[in-house]
Amino acid sequence: MSRIIGIDLGTTNSCVAVLDEKGVPRTLSSADGERTLPSWVSWAVNGEITVGTRARRQAVTNASATVYGSKRLIGRKVNAEDVAWFAKLAPFRIVAAPNGDAWVRVHGAPISPQEVAAHVLRRLRQIAEEALGEPVTRAVVTVPAYFDDAQRQATRDAGQIAGLDIIRILNEPTAAALAYGAHRVGEGRRIIGVFDLGGGTFDISIMSVENGIFEVLATGGDSALGGEDWDRRMLERIVDEVFDQHRVDLIGIPMAMSRLREACEAAKKALSDGRETVIQLPFLANDQHGAPINYERKLTRELVQELTNDLLERVEAPCRRALADAGLTAADLEEVLLVGGMTRSPAVQDIVAKIFGKKPSKGANPDEVVALGAAAYAGILAGESDEAALLDVTPHDIGIKVGDSGFSAVLPRNSMLPCRARRLFATTSDNQRFVSIELYQGESTDITKNRKLGQVVLDDLPHGPAGSVRVELVMTIDVESILAVSARELRTGKEASVKIRPSGGLSQREVVEIINRRRNESSIVSTLPLEGGNVMRVATREQAAVKPPDDTDK
User: Fold this and answer.
1) Any idea where the domains of the chain sit in the sequence?
2) Residue 487 pLDDT greater than 90, yes or no
3) 4-169+507-544 and 398-502 share one fold
4) Is residue 231 flagged as an active site residue?
5) HSE on the CB side for 164, CA within 13 Å?
Protein backbone atom coordinates (compact mmCIF):
# COMPACT_ATOMS: atom_id res chain seq x y z
CA MET A 1 0.00 0.00 0.00
CA SER A 2 1.16 3.52 -0.73
CA ARG A 3 2.01 5.99 2.02
CA ILE A 4 -0.83 8.06 3.45
CA ILE A 5 -0.06 11.77 3.37
CA GLY A 6 -1.61 14.55 5.44
CA ILE A 7 -2.89 17.64 3.64
CA ASP A 8 -3.98 20.99 4.98
CA LEU A 9 -6.03 22.44 2.12
CA GLY A 10 -6.02 26.10 3.13
CA THR A 11 -7.72 29.24 1.88
CA THR A 12 -4.45 31.14 1.41
CA ASN A 13 -1.78 28.44 1.62
CA SER A 14 -1.77 24.66 1.64
CA CYS A 15 0.70 22.19 3.06
CA VAL A 16 1.51 18.47 2.83
CA ALA A 17 3.20 16.30 5.46
CA VAL A 18 3.99 12.66 6.11
CA LEU A 19 5.04 10.43 8.99
CA ASP A 20 8.77 9.67 8.65
CA GLU A 21 10.62 6.44 9.42
CA LYS A 22 10.91 7.42 13.09
CA GLY A 23 7.19 8.01 13.41
CA VAL A 24 7.55 11.80 13.48
CA PRO A 25 5.39 13.94 11.17
CA ARG A 26 7.38 16.25 8.89
CA THR A 27 6.44 18.81 6.29
CA LEU A 28 7.38 18.02 2.70
CA SER A 29 9.04 20.71 0.59
CA SER A 30 8.75 21.28 -3.14
CA ALA A 31 11.80 21.14 -5.42
CA ASP A 32 12.02 24.91 -4.92
CA GLY A 33 12.31 24.44 -1.15
CA GLU A 34 8.82 25.81 -0.40
CA ARG A 35 7.15 24.24 2.64
CA THR A 36 3.76 25.83 1.98
CA LEU A 37 2.00 26.13 -1.37
CA PRO A 38 -0.09 29.23 -2.16
CA SER A 39 -3.62 28.02 -2.93
CA TRP A 40 -3.66 29.89 -6.24
CA VAL A 41 -4.42 28.55 -9.73
CA SER A 42 -3.85 30.50 -12.94
CA TRP A 43 -4.99 29.75 -16.50
CA ALA A 44 -2.94 31.19 -19.36
CA VAL A 45 -4.51 32.01 -22.73
CA ASN A 46 -2.55 29.15 -24.35
CA GLY A 47 -4.10 26.64 -21.97
CA GLU A 48 -1.35 26.30 -19.36
CA ILE A 49 -2.53 25.81 -15.79
CA THR A 50 -0.16 27.09 -13.15
CA VAL A 51 -0.42 26.30 -9.44
CA GLY A 52 1.20 27.84 -6.38
CA THR A 53 3.81 30.58 -6.30
CA ARG A 54 4.03 30.87 -10.07
CA ALA A 55 0.28 31.33 -10.24
CA ARG A 56 0.41 34.00 -7.58
CA ARG A 57 3.07 35.87 -9.53
CA GLN A 58 0.68 36.02 -12.48
CA ALA A 59 -2.00 37.73 -10.40
CA VAL A 60 -0.94 41.18 -11.58
CA THR A 61 -0.59 40.45 -15.31
CA ASN A 62 -3.31 37.77 -15.56
CA ALA A 63 -5.65 38.86 -12.80
CA SER A 64 -8.96 37.80 -14.38
CA ALA A 65 -7.74 34.22 -14.90
CA THR A 66 -5.92 33.73 -11.59
CA VAL A 67 -8.15 32.26 -8.89
CA TYR A 68 -7.46 32.40 -5.17
CA GLY A 69 -9.59 31.75 -2.10
CA SER A 70 -11.59 28.94 -3.73
CA LYS A 71 -12.06 27.44 -0.27
CA ARG A 72 -14.41 30.34 0.47
CA LEU A 73 -16.54 29.27 -2.50
CA ILE A 74 -16.49 25.50 -2.21
CA GLY A 75 -19.89 24.13 -1.26
CA ARG A 76 -21.30 27.68 -1.15
CA LYS A 77 -24.20 29.41 -2.89
CA VAL A 78 -23.47 32.40 -5.10
CA ASN A 79 -26.03 34.55 -3.28
CA ALA A 80 -24.49 34.02 0.17
CA GLU A 81 -23.54 37.33 1.75
CA ASP A 82 -19.86 36.51 2.19
CA VAL A 83 -19.62 35.22 -1.40
CA ALA A 84 -21.19 38.45 -2.66
CA TRP A 85 -18.58 40.69 -1.04
CA PHE A 86 -15.80 38.36 -2.17
CA ALA A 87 -17.08 38.66 -5.73
CA LYS A 88 -17.20 42.44 -5.47
CA LEU A 89 -13.44 42.76 -4.96
CA ALA A 90 -12.13 39.63 -6.70
CA PRO A 91 -10.46 40.33 -10.08
CA PHE A 92 -11.91 37.11 -11.52
CA ARG A 93 -15.60 36.54 -12.21
CA ILE A 94 -17.79 34.54 -9.85
CA VAL A 95 -20.93 33.18 -11.51
CA ALA A 96 -23.95 31.11 -10.57
CA ALA A 97 -24.15 27.46 -11.57
CA PRO A 98 -27.63 26.14 -12.52
CA ASN A 99 -28.08 24.86 -8.95
CA GLY A 100 -27.04 28.22 -7.47
CA ASP A 101 -23.52 27.15 -6.45
CA ALA A 102 -20.71 29.70 -6.70
CA TRP A 103 -18.38 28.94 -9.61
CA VAL A 104 -15.70 30.98 -11.38
CA ARG A 105 -15.49 31.92 -15.04
CA VAL A 106 -12.03 31.80 -16.62
CA HIS A 107 -11.46 32.75 -20.28
CA GLY A 108 -15.18 32.28 -20.81
CA ALA A 109 -15.26 28.76 -19.35
CA PRO A 110 -17.14 27.99 -16.10
CA ILE A 111 -15.12 26.08 -13.50
CA SER A 112 -16.33 24.70 -10.17
CA PRO A 113 -14.38 25.46 -6.96
CA GLN A 114 -13.97 21.70 -6.58
CA GLU A 115 -11.91 21.59 -9.75
CA VAL A 116 -9.85 24.61 -8.65
CA ALA A 117 -9.13 22.87 -5.33
CA ALA A 118 -8.31 19.67 -7.22
CA HIS A 119 -5.46 21.46 -9.02
CA VAL A 120 -4.00 22.45 -5.64
CA LEU A 121 -4.43 18.92 -4.29
CA ARG A 122 -2.86 17.45 -7.41
CA ARG A 123 0.18 19.69 -6.99
CA LEU A 124 0.51 18.72 -3.32
CA ARG A 125 0.30 15.08 -4.33
CA GLN A 126 3.06 15.69 -6.87
CA ILE A 127 5.25 17.35 -4.23
CA ALA A 128 4.78 14.33 -1.99
CA GLU A 129 5.61 11.86 -4.75
CA GLU A 130 8.79 13.77 -5.67
CA ALA A 131 9.88 13.94 -2.02
CA LEU A 132 9.06 10.30 -1.20
CA GLY A 133 10.10 8.79 -4.53
CA GLU A 134 6.97 6.69 -4.79
CA PRO A 135 3.37 7.02 -6.00
CA VAL A 136 0.88 8.52 -3.57
CA THR A 137 -2.86 7.86 -3.83
CA ARG A 138 -4.18 8.14 -0.25
CA ALA A 139 -4.53 11.17 1.99
CA VAL A 140 -6.03 12.58 5.15
CA VAL A 141 -7.36 16.02 4.27
CA THR A 142 -8.34 18.60 6.86
CA VAL A 143 -11.30 20.98 6.78
CA PRO A 144 -12.55 23.64 9.19
CA ALA A 145 -14.51 22.10 12.04
CA TYR A 146 -17.41 24.41 11.20
CA PHE A 147 -17.67 23.19 7.58
CA ASP A 148 -21.13 21.84 6.84
CA ASP A 149 -22.04 18.62 5.03
CA ALA A 150 -22.04 20.24 1.57
CA GLN A 151 -18.59 21.76 2.06
CA ARG A 152 -17.16 18.47 3.32
CA GLN A 153 -18.61 16.53 0.41
CA ALA A 154 -17.29 19.14 -2.03
CA THR A 155 -13.81 18.72 -0.52
CA ARG A 156 -14.06 14.96 -0.98
CA ASP A 157 -15.10 15.50 -4.61
CA ALA A 158 -12.03 17.71 -5.13
CA GLY A 159 -9.85 14.89 -3.84
CA GLN A 160 -11.47 12.39 -6.19
CA ILE A 161 -10.87 14.72 -9.16
CA ALA A 162 -7.24 15.06 -8.08
CA GLY A 163 -6.79 11.28 -8.07
CA LEU A 164 -6.60 11.05 -4.30
CA ASP A 165 -8.44 8.56 -2.15
CA ILE A 166 -9.34 10.74 0.85
CA ILE A 167 -9.51 8.12 3.54
CA ARG A 168 -10.51 10.61 6.19
CA ILE A 169 -11.80 14.16 6.40
CA LEU A 170 -10.30 15.52 9.63
CA ASN A 171 -11.23 18.71 11.47
CA GLU A 172 -8.40 21.25 11.52
CA PRO A 173 -8.46 22.05 15.27
CA THR A 174 -8.35 18.35 16.13
CA ALA A 175 -5.40 17.84 13.78
CA ALA A 176 -3.61 20.82 15.33
CA ALA A 177 -4.08 19.52 18.87
CA LEU A 178 -2.59 16.20 17.81
CA ALA A 179 0.42 17.92 16.21
CA TYR A 180 0.95 20.12 19.27
CA GLY A 181 1.37 16.88 21.24
CA ALA A 182 -1.26 17.91 23.78
CA HIS A 183 -1.62 14.24 24.77
CA ARG A 184 2.03 14.08 25.83
CA VAL A 185 1.91 17.01 28.26
CA GLY A 186 1.16 16.18 31.90
CA GLU A 187 -0.95 13.38 33.31
CA GLY A 188 -4.64 12.98 33.96
CA ARG A 189 -7.44 14.76 32.17
CA ARG A 190 -6.65 18.11 30.56
CA ILE A 191 -9.16 20.53 29.08
CA ILE A 192 -7.77 22.60 26.22
CA GLY A 193 -9.05 24.97 23.57
CA VAL A 194 -7.88 25.20 19.97
CA PHE A 195 -8.34 28.66 18.43
CA ASP A 196 -7.90 28.41 14.65
CA LEU A 197 -8.09 31.61 12.59
CA GLY A 198 -6.77 31.06 9.08
CA GLY A 199 -7.03 32.86 5.76
CA GLY A 200 -10.76 32.38 5.29
CA THR A 201 -12.27 30.42 8.17
CA PHE A 202 -12.43 30.48 11.98
CA ASP A 203 -12.84 27.50 14.32
CA ILE A 204 -12.87 27.05 18.07
CA SER A 205 -12.83 23.59 19.61
CA ILE A 206 -12.97 22.70 23.29
CA MET A 207 -11.55 19.25 23.97
CA SER A 208 -10.57 16.86 26.69
CA VAL A 209 -7.26 14.99 26.49
CA GLU A 210 -6.65 11.92 28.62
CA ASN A 211 -4.62 8.73 28.10
CA GLY A 212 -4.01 9.57 24.46
CA ILE A 213 -7.70 10.16 23.71
CA PHE A 214 -8.75 13.50 22.24
CA GLU A 215 -12.43 14.01 22.93
CA VAL A 216 -13.97 17.11 21.38
CA LEU A 217 -16.55 18.45 23.81
CA ALA A 218 -17.87 21.29 21.67
CA THR A 219 -16.98 23.18 18.54
CA GLY A 220 -18.00 26.45 16.93
CA GLY A 221 -16.79 28.98 14.46
CA ASP A 222 -17.44 31.16 11.45
CA SER A 223 -16.80 29.71 8.00
CA ALA A 224 -16.75 33.22 6.50
CA LEU A 225 -14.14 34.88 8.72
CA GLY A 226 -10.38 34.87 8.15
CA GLY A 227 -7.26 36.85 7.39
CA GLU A 228 -8.51 37.83 3.95
CA ASP A 229 -11.20 39.91 5.67
CA TRP A 230 -8.47 42.00 7.31
CA ASP A 231 -6.86 42.47 3.89
CA ARG A 232 -10.23 43.50 2.47
CA ARG A 233 -10.76 46.21 5.08
CA MET A 234 -7.44 47.84 4.22
CA LEU A 235 -8.14 47.40 0.53
CA GLU A 236 -11.54 49.07 0.80
CA ARG A 237 -10.08 52.04 2.68
CA ILE A 238 -7.40 52.60 0.05
CA VAL A 239 -9.89 52.25 -2.82
CA ASP A 240 -12.09 54.89 -1.18
CA GLU A 241 -9.13 57.23 -0.62
CA VAL A 242 -7.98 56.95 -4.22
CA PHE A 243 -11.50 57.64 -5.46
CA ASP A 244 -11.89 60.68 -3.18
CA GLN A 245 -8.56 62.11 -4.30
CA HIS A 246 -8.48 61.20 -8.00
CA ARG A 247 -12.10 60.23 -8.85
CA VAL A 248 -10.84 56.89 -10.15
CA ASP A 249 -12.57 53.64 -9.14
CA LEU A 250 -9.82 51.04 -8.81
CA ILE A 251 -12.36 48.21 -8.53
CA GLY A 252 -12.72 48.32 -12.30
CA ILE A 253 -8.95 47.97 -12.85
CA PRO A 254 -7.98 44.31 -12.16
CA MET A 255 -4.22 44.91 -12.34
CA ALA A 256 -4.40 47.73 -9.79
CA MET A 257 -6.60 45.64 -7.47
CA SER A 258 -4.19 42.72 -7.63
CA ARG A 259 -1.26 44.97 -6.72
CA LEU A 260 -3.25 46.53 -3.89
CA ARG A 261 -4.35 43.19 -2.53
CA GLU A 262 -0.78 41.93 -2.43
CA ALA A 263 0.39 45.15 -0.76
CA CYS A 264 -2.36 44.97 1.88
CA GLU A 265 -1.49 41.38 2.75
CA ALA A 266 2.19 42.30 3.07
CA ALA A 267 1.27 45.28 5.26
CA LYS A 268 -0.86 43.08 7.52
CA LYS A 269 2.06 40.72 8.04
CA ALA A 270 4.47 43.62 8.67
CA LEU A 271 2.16 45.05 11.33
CA SER A 272 2.24 41.73 13.22
CA ASP A 273 5.85 42.58 14.10
CA GLY A 274 6.06 46.37 13.81
CA ARG A 275 3.88 49.32 14.78
CA GLU A 276 3.77 50.87 11.32
CA THR A 277 4.55 50.18 7.68
CA VAL A 278 4.38 51.97 4.33
CA ILE A 279 2.57 50.95 1.16
CA GLN A 280 4.28 52.29 -1.96
CA LEU A 281 2.74 51.56 -5.35
CA PRO A 282 4.09 53.70 -8.18
CA PHE A 283 2.03 53.89 -11.39
CA LEU A 284 -0.93 52.21 -9.70
CA ALA A 285 -3.34 53.61 -12.29
CA ASN A 286 -3.98 56.71 -14.40
CA ASP A 287 -6.17 59.58 -13.30
CA GLN A 288 -8.89 61.20 -15.39
CA HIS A 289 -6.30 63.20 -17.28
CA GLY A 290 -4.06 60.22 -18.03
CA ALA A 291 -1.45 61.17 -15.44
CA PRO A 292 -0.02 58.30 -13.35
CA ILE A 293 -1.27 57.77 -9.80
CA ASN A 294 1.71 57.07 -7.57
CA TYR A 295 0.20 55.80 -4.36
CA GLU A 296 1.99 55.98 -1.01
CA ARG A 297 0.37 55.45 2.37
CA LYS A 298 1.59 54.90 5.91
CA LEU A 299 -0.39 52.32 7.86
CA THR A 300 -0.22 51.94 11.62
CA ARG A 301 -1.25 49.01 13.74
CA GLU A 302 -3.76 51.25 15.51
CA LEU A 303 -5.46 52.25 12.25
CA VAL A 304 -5.77 48.66 11.05
CA GLN A 305 -7.20 47.60 14.41
CA GLU A 306 -9.72 50.43 14.18
CA LEU A 307 -10.76 49.23 10.72
CA THR A 308 -11.10 45.62 11.84
CA ASN A 309 -12.46 45.84 15.40
CA ASP A 310 -15.78 44.32 14.35
CA LEU A 311 -13.94 41.36 12.80
CA LEU A 312 -12.15 40.71 16.09
CA GLU A 313 -15.43 40.92 17.96
CA ARG A 314 -16.90 38.19 15.74
CA VAL A 315 -14.59 35.55 17.26
CA GLU A 316 -15.92 36.06 20.78
CA ALA A 317 -19.48 34.76 20.40
CA PRO A 318 -18.48 31.34 18.95
CA CYS A 319 -15.93 30.93 21.76
CA ARG A 320 -18.49 31.73 24.45
CA ARG A 321 -21.05 29.42 22.88
CA ALA A 322 -18.55 26.55 22.59
CA LEU A 323 -17.69 26.90 26.27
CA ALA A 324 -21.39 26.91 27.18
CA ASP A 325 -22.10 23.88 24.98
CA ALA A 326 -19.27 22.03 26.73
CA GLY A 327 -20.66 23.02 30.14
CA LEU A 328 -17.41 24.77 31.02
CA THR A 329 -16.06 28.20 31.86
CA ALA A 330 -12.87 29.79 30.55
CA ALA A 331 -11.23 29.07 33.90
CA ASP A 332 -11.66 25.33 33.29
CA LEU A 333 -9.27 25.42 30.32
CA GLU A 334 -5.68 24.58 31.07
CA GLU A 335 -4.33 25.80 27.74
CA VAL A 336 -5.42 27.53 24.53
CA LEU A 337 -3.52 26.59 21.36
CA LEU A 338 -3.19 28.98 18.43
CA VAL A 339 -3.54 27.77 14.84
CA GLY A 340 -3.67 29.66 11.56
CA GLY A 341 -1.56 32.47 10.14
CA MET A 342 -3.86 35.22 11.40
CA THR A 343 -3.08 34.26 15.01
CA ARG A 344 0.31 35.93 14.55
CA SER A 345 -1.52 39.24 14.93
CA PRO A 346 -1.01 40.80 18.39
CA ALA A 347 -4.62 42.01 18.33
CA VAL A 348 -5.88 38.44 17.82
CA GLN A 349 -3.63 37.14 20.60
CA ASP A 350 -4.91 39.87 22.90
CA ILE A 351 -8.57 39.04 22.32
CA VAL A 352 -7.88 35.32 22.86
CA ALA A 353 -6.26 36.20 26.18
CA LYS A 354 -9.27 38.37 27.04
CA ILE A 355 -11.83 35.67 26.21
CA PHE A 356 -10.09 32.81 27.99
CA GLY A 357 -8.29 34.70 30.74
CA LYS A 358 -4.86 33.31 29.89
CA LYS A 359 -2.12 33.84 27.34
CA PRO A 360 -2.43 31.42 24.43
CA SER A 361 0.31 28.96 23.51
CA LYS A 362 2.39 29.64 20.41
CA GLY A 363 4.67 26.62 20.37
CA ALA A 364 4.15 25.50 16.78
CA ASN A 365 4.29 26.96 13.29
CA PRO A 366 0.65 27.97 12.68
CA ASP A 367 1.07 27.49 8.92
CA GLU A 368 2.22 23.86 9.17
CA VAL A 369 0.75 22.46 12.38
CA VAL A 370 -2.54 21.30 10.78
CA ALA A 371 -0.78 19.34 8.02
CA LEU A 372 1.53 17.79 10.61
CA GLY A 373 -1.50 16.70 12.62
CA ALA A 374 -3.09 15.23 9.50
CA ALA A 375 0.10 13.25 8.85
CA ALA A 376 0.15 12.03 12.44
CA TYR A 377 -3.43 10.83 12.11
CA ALA A 378 -2.60 9.21 8.77
CA GLY A 379 0.01 7.21 10.65
CA ILE A 380 -2.61 6.12 13.16
CA LEU A 381 -4.98 4.99 10.39
CA ALA A 382 -2.14 3.12 8.66
CA GLY A 383 -1.26 1.30 11.87
CA GLU A 384 2.14 2.99 12.10
CA SER A 385 1.21 4.68 15.40
CA ASP A 386 -1.28 4.04 18.16
CA GLU A 387 -0.43 6.82 20.58
CA ALA A 388 -3.71 8.71 20.18
CA ALA A 389 -7.39 8.31 19.35
CA LEU A 390 -9.75 11.07 18.23
CA LEU A 391 -13.39 11.49 19.21
CA ASP A 392 -15.02 14.37 17.35
CA VAL A 393 -18.48 15.96 17.31
CA THR A 394 -20.98 17.30 14.78
CA PRO A 395 -20.55 21.03 14.07
CA HIS A 396 -24.22 21.85 13.30
CA ASP A 397 -27.75 20.69 14.03
CA ILE A 398 -29.14 18.46 11.30
CA GLY A 399 -32.88 18.16 11.03
CA ILE A 400 -36.00 18.36 8.93
CA LYS A 401 -38.49 20.94 7.77
CA VAL A 402 -41.73 21.00 9.75
CA GLY A 403 -44.75 23.01 8.69
CA ASP A 404 -44.21 25.92 6.34
CA SER A 405 -40.89 27.22 7.70
CA GLY A 406 -40.11 25.45 10.95
CA PHE A 407 -37.01 23.38 11.73
CA SER A 408 -36.81 20.34 13.97
CA ALA A 409 -33.34 19.11 14.91
CA VAL A 410 -32.88 15.36 14.62
CA LEU A 411 -29.14 15.22 15.29
CA PRO A 412 -28.11 18.14 17.52
CA ARG A 413 -24.76 19.87 17.17
CA ASN A 414 -21.88 18.59 19.29
CA SER A 415 -23.20 15.01 19.13
CA MET A 416 -20.37 12.52 19.46
CA LEU A 417 -19.35 10.96 16.16
CA PRO A 418 -20.37 8.61 14.70
CA CYS A 419 -24.01 9.12 15.64
CA ARG A 420 -27.42 7.93 14.48
CA ALA A 421 -31.02 9.01 14.94
CA ARG A 422 -34.37 7.59 13.88
CA ARG A 423 -37.64 9.30 13.04
CA LEU A 424 -41.00 7.76 12.14
CA PHE A 425 -43.21 9.18 9.39
CA ALA A 426 -46.77 8.13 8.52
CA THR A 427 -48.70 8.66 5.32
CA THR A 428 -51.28 11.45 5.37
CA SER A 429 -53.55 10.23 2.56
CA ASP A 430 -54.99 6.92 1.35
CA ASN A 431 -52.72 4.83 -0.89
CA GLN A 432 -49.94 7.40 -0.66
CA ARG A 433 -47.01 6.16 -2.76
CA PHE A 434 -44.20 8.36 -1.52
CA VAL A 435 -43.05 10.61 1.31
CA SER A 436 -40.86 13.66 0.73
CA ILE A 437 -38.69 15.09 3.51
CA GLU A 438 -36.46 18.17 3.32
CA LEU A 439 -33.14 18.03 5.22
CA TYR A 440 -31.48 21.13 6.63
CA GLN A 441 -28.38 22.00 8.61
CA GLY A 442 -28.09 24.96 10.96
CA GLU A 443 -29.02 26.33 14.36
CA SER A 444 -32.06 28.54 13.67
CA THR A 445 -35.65 27.47 14.28
CA ASP A 446 -36.45 29.43 11.09
CA ILE A 447 -35.75 27.11 8.16
CA THR A 448 -34.92 30.00 5.83
CA LYS A 449 -31.82 30.80 7.89
CA ASN A 450 -30.41 27.28 7.66
CA ARG A 451 -28.59 25.43 4.88
CA LYS A 452 -30.68 23.03 2.80
CA LEU A 453 -28.82 19.76 2.37
CA GLY A 454 -31.32 18.18 0.04
CA GLN A 455 -34.63 16.43 -0.28
CA VAL A 456 -35.22 12.78 0.64
CA VAL A 457 -37.89 11.01 -1.40
CA LEU A 458 -39.18 7.64 -0.13
CA ASP A 459 -40.75 5.80 -3.08
CA ASP A 460 -42.73 2.60 -3.65
CA LEU A 461 -44.75 2.64 -0.43
CA PRO A 462 -47.45 -0.07 -0.07
CA HIS A 463 -51.14 0.77 -0.47
CA GLY A 464 -53.13 1.50 2.65
CA PRO A 465 -55.34 3.99 4.47
CA ALA A 466 -53.88 7.29 5.69
CA GLY A 467 -51.66 6.76 8.72
CA SER A 468 -51.43 2.99 8.28
CA VAL A 469 -48.14 3.05 6.40
CA ARG A 470 -45.21 4.10 8.52
CA VAL A 471 -41.65 4.67 7.41
CA GLU A 472 -38.60 4.74 9.66
CA LEU A 473 -35.99 7.24 8.51
CA VAL A 474 -32.45 6.66 9.81
CA MET A 475 -29.92 9.48 9.66
CA THR A 476 -26.28 8.61 10.29
CA ILE A 477 -23.28 10.92 10.51
CA ASP A 478 -19.92 9.20 10.19
CA VAL A 479 -16.61 10.14 11.79
CA GLU A 480 -16.04 12.70 9.02
CA SER A 481 -19.34 14.52 9.74
CA ILE A 482 -20.80 13.33 6.42
CA LEU A 483 -24.48 12.45 6.41
CA ALA A 484 -26.08 9.24 5.12
CA VAL A 485 -29.79 8.41 5.05
CA SER A 486 -31.66 5.09 4.87
CA ALA A 487 -35.30 4.14 5.34
CA ARG A 488 -37.64 1.14 5.59
CA GLU A 489 -41.38 0.59 5.68
CA LEU A 490 -42.20 -0.90 9.08
CA ARG A 491 -45.17 -3.14 8.24
CA THR A 492 -43.38 -5.21 5.61
CA GLY A 493 -39.81 -4.49 6.65
CA LYS A 494 -39.10 -3.58 3.04
CA GLU A 495 -36.21 -1.21 2.49
CA ALA A 496 -37.61 1.91 0.92
CA SER A 497 -35.78 3.44 -1.99
CA VAL A 498 -34.18 6.68 -0.85
CA LYS A 499 -33.30 9.41 -3.30
CA ILE A 500 -31.41 12.34 -1.89
CA ARG A 501 -31.72 15.31 -4.17
CA PRO A 502 -28.90 17.59 -3.07
CA SER A 503 -29.45 21.33 -3.19
CA GLY A 504 -25.96 21.89 -4.56
CA GLY A 505 -22.57 20.39 -5.32
CA LEU A 506 -21.37 18.19 -8.16
CA SER A 507 -23.17 15.00 -9.04
CA GLN A 508 -21.12 11.82 -9.26
CA ARG A 509 -21.64 11.91 -13.02
CA GLU A 510 -20.10 15.39 -13.19
CA VAL A 511 -17.14 14.30 -11.07
CA VAL A 512 -16.52 11.35 -13.40
CA GLU A 513 -16.80 13.61 -16.44
CA ILE A 514 -14.14 15.95 -15.04
CA ILE A 515 -11.84 13.02 -14.26
CA ASN A 516 -12.28 11.56 -17.75
CA ARG A 517 -11.64 14.94 -19.34
CA ARG A 518 -8.44 15.34 -17.35
CA ARG A 519 -7.31 11.88 -18.46
CA ASN A 520 -8.00 12.72 -22.09
CA GLU A 521 -6.06 15.97 -21.79
CA SER A 522 -3.07 14.23 -20.24
CA SER A 523 -3.04 11.69 -23.08
CA ILE A 524 -3.05 14.48 -25.68
CA VAL A 525 -0.65 16.98 -24.17
CA SER A 526 2.36 16.15 -22.01
CA THR A 527 3.08 17.79 -18.68
CA LEU A 528 5.47 20.73 -18.75
CA PRO A 529 7.93 20.47 -15.81
CA LEU A 530 8.54 24.11 -14.94
CA GLU A 531 9.98 25.04 -11.54
CA GLY A 532 9.28 21.79 -9.78
CA GLY A 533 6.64 20.65 -12.27
CA ASN A 534 3.86 22.95 -11.16
CA VAL A 535 2.62 23.85 -14.64
CA MET A 536 0.22 21.67 -16.61
CA ARG A 537 -1.13 22.18 -20.13
CA VAL A 538 -4.69 21.43 -21.15
CA ALA A 539 -5.89 20.87 -24.69
CA THR A 540 -8.46 23.67 -24.93
CA ARG A 541 -9.93 26.29 -22.65
CA GLU A 542 -13.43 25.14 -23.54
CA GLN A 543 -12.73 21.74 -22.03
CA ALA A 544 -12.41 23.38 -18.60
CA ALA A 545 -16.19 23.51 -18.34
CA VAL A 546 -17.92 20.83 -16.28
CA LYS A 547 -21.46 22.06 -16.63
CA PRO A 548 -22.34 25.41 -18.15
CA PRO A 549 -23.71 27.75 -15.49
CA ASP A 550 -26.02 30.55 -16.42
CA ASP A 551 -24.81 34.07 -17.12
CA THR A 552 -25.77 35.47 -13.73
CA ASP A 553 -22.69 37.21 -12.40
CA LYS A 554 -22.24 38.30 -8.81
Assistant:
1) 4-169+507-544, 227-310, 398-502
2) no
3) no
4) no
5) 32
Is 50 exceeded by the pLDDT of residue 531?
no
Residue 266, amino acid:
A
**What CATH number does the domain located at 227-310 have?**
3.90.640.10
Q: Which is the catalytic residue, given 8, 148, 149, 368? A: 8
Q: Which member of 129, 196, 335, 367 is catalytic?
A: 196
Establish whether 228 is a catalytic residue: no
Q: Is 8 tagged catalytic?
A: yes
Cβ atoms within 10 Å of 268's Cβ, excluding its own: 23
172 catalytic, yes or no? yes
> Taking residues 7-19, what's their average pLDDT?
97
pLDDT band at 321 (very low <50, low <70, confident <90, very high): very high
Spell out the CATH class of 4-169+507-544.
alpha beta
- Cβ(184)–Cβ(136) below 8 Å: no
CA gap 443, 134 in Å, rounded: 45
The dotted CATH code for 398-502 is: 2.60.34.10
159: Cα separation from own chain's centroid: 13
What is the 8-class DSSP label of residue 521? H
pLDDT at 103: 97
What mean pLDDT, rounded, does the chain reach? 88
Q: Could you give the C-alpha distances from 173 to 3, 28, 220, 428, 527, in angstroms and in order?
A: 23, 21, 11, 45, 36
Question: Tens of pLDDT along 245-275?
Answer: 999 999 989 889 999 999 999 999 999 999 9
Helix extents (H) in 37-112: 53-57, 81-89
Q: What percent of the chain has pLDDT over 90?
A: 66
Q: What are residue 24's phi and psi, to 5 degrees?
A: -110, 130
Q: Residue length, the chain? A: 554
Q: Which amino acid is at 2?
A: S
pLDDT for the residue 81: 87
Active-site residue, from 129, 148, 149, 172: 172
Q: pTM of the entire structure? A: 0.87
Within 8 A by CB and 6+ apart from 383, the residues are none
